[in-house]
Amino acid sequence: MSLPVLSLDEIRNQVEQCQACPLWEGRTHVVFGEGDPHARVLIVGEAPGKNEDLQGKPFVGAAGKFLDELLEAAGLKREEVFIANVLKCRPPSNRNPQAHEIQACAPFLRLQTKSIDPLVIVTMGNFATQFILKTGVGITHLRGTVQQAGKFTVLPVYHPAAAIYDRSKREVLLADFQQIGSMVRDRMAQSSDIQALD
Ligand code: URA
């Protein structure tokens, strides 16, 4: 069944009332995601952590600081992308998302993707990548490759939190984001060339 195209405000209202899995009981805020509602780049993380739950915003903790550096390396500003997560509520003690939680939350990320209609989706880490690509293949194999999910180009990268524990992933992430920046600029130039022909 094809999903309707809803505005982000309509989807946010649904998320704020959601009790589809037990994570709603422990949340301070849902973390809907933020950024340009018509962003050309949708960035998808895993789930809110403690700071995100407290502030209701994605990637505001240590991983978020590094994400800001990565965006700068790509030549992108936070306000011009949209940052979302697979899960909108924080799992207790930041444990991994469980399959039933992902399934319960899945319609929201699908609706967000349809509403934003980006040119590219950057998936950070295993959970986002496996969700968007519907694959069991791990991020170590997929990072740095160009994938397709329906009409969307998907660029899988390590999760920025992984670089906090493993410094060798820092350089890999920085290089991947630089590449993402050039690819986004190429795609934007192509799509404005195509519009000019209309
Ligand atoms: N890690 C995530 O995957 N998402 C956030 O919003 C914060 C940390």
Contiguous helical run count: 8
Q: What is the CATH topology assignment?
A: Uracil-DNA Glycosylase, subunit E
User: What small ligands are held by the chains?
Assistant: uracil
Task: Evaluate the radius of gyration.
Answer: 16 Å
> Which sequence of strands runs across the widest sheet?
1-3-2-4-6-5
Order of helical and strand elements = HEEHHEHEHHEEHH
Q: Which bin fits the share of residues in helices?
A: 40-55%
Major sheet characteristics: 6 strands, mixed
| Terminal residue distance | 31 Å
Counting structural domains, the number is 1
Kindly estimate the percentage of residues that lie in beta strands according to DSSP: 5-15%
Kindly report the average pLDDT value.
96
CATH architecture: 3-Layer(aba) Sandwich
Give an overview of the whole structure.
It is a single chain. By secondary structure, this protein is α/β, with parallel strands linked by helices. The chain has a single domain, classed as Uracil-DNA glycosylase-like domain (Uracil-DNA Glycosylase, subunit E, 3-Layer(aba) Sandwich). A hairpin with a 2-residue loop joins β5 and β6. α3 crosses α8. The longest helix is centred in the C-terminal third of the chain and has 30 residues. It starts with 7 loop residues before the first helix and ends with a helix. The chain binds uracil (URA).
Short description:
The chain has 198 residues and is α/β, with parallel strands linked by helices.
Characteristics:
six-stranded mixed β-sheet; alpha/beta; Uracil-DNA Glycosylase, subunit E; 198 residues; 6 strands; single chain; 8 helices; binds uracil
